[in-house]
Amino acid sequence: MTDRRYVIDEMISAKAIAARIEALCRAIHDEFDGTDKLVVVGLLRGSFVFIADLVRELDLPIEVDFLEASSYGDGTESSREVRILKDLRGAIEGRDVLVVEDIVDTGHTLHHVTNLLKSREPARLKTIALLDKPSRREVDMKADWTGFEIPDEFVVGYGIDYAQRNRNLPFIGKVRFT
Ligand code: 5GP
Ligand code: MG
Ligand code: MG
């Protein structure tokens, strides 16, 4: 699988992503205006570029934490079983929390992670995903804010990998096997 030859076709440009993040941050400001206890939680590893751009557009006092949940492994099919590989460093009880995800696909990952974090009794828990593939959903889950809805294509770039490669592409592209 990982040694198959492929090309990457641009799907969402770096410029379009930046413009969308500006709009999303206006909505996030409206939600969290006045807070002094917001923790922005990035789901590793795919959200690391998105969270970096997002927090620099947020004019709010925030902390940043990370959580790693297992998802695809190195293939292109979801495992459905979600495991926590790295937990948050800080407590979130009574805090406002914004969970940042790269893609909501079947929905299992975000569903599992939000249930886990809710059990820790944050004051408020909101979610944002850069990408959403609604046609792939298996559990009832939608992020509070979504960057772009996309069709059922395997995408890479802007933090998102294929077999750990291509995370450093500045745009979102779809993988086309040749
Ligand atoms: P879910 O649990 O919603 O099925 O999967 C979510 C995770 O699967 C995402 O956070 C992402 O890591 C991975 N994933 C879903 N679709 C894609 C895709 O098109 N490309 C890559 N590289 N990962 C994906
Ligand atoms: Mg992810
Ligand atoms: Mg991955």
Protein model, in words:
It is a single chain. With 178 residues, the protein is an alpha/beta fold. The protein has a domain at 16-24 and 35-67 and 85-152: Rossmann fold (3-Layer(aba) Sandwich), CATH 3.40.50. Helices cover 22% and strands 31% of the residues. The protein contains 3 helices and 9 strands, in the order βαβαβββαββββ. It has helices spanning 14-32, 48-57, 108-118, and strands at 6-12, 38-44, 62-69, 84-86, 96-104, 124-132, 145-149, 155-156, 172-177. The strands form 2 sheets. The chain has a 6-stranded mixed β-sheet with strand order 4-3-2-5-6-7, with helices on both faces. It has a 3-stranded antiparallel β-sheet with strand order 1-9-8. It is globular. The two termini are 12 Å apart. The model has no long low-confidence stretch (mean pLDDT 94). One magnesium ion (MG) binds next to loops. One magnesium ion binds at residues 43, 46, 71, 101-102, 109. GO terms for molecular function: glycosyltransferase activity. It catalyses: GMP + diphosphate = guanine + 5-phospho-alpha-D-ribose 1-diphosphate; IMP + diphosphate = hypoxanthine + 5-phospho-alpha-D-ribose 1-diphosphate. Residues 14-162 form the Phosphoribosyltransferase domain. Pathway: Purine metabolism; IMP biosynthesis via salvage pathway; IMP from hypoxanthine: step 1/1. Belongs to the purine/pyrimidine phosphoribosyltransferase family.
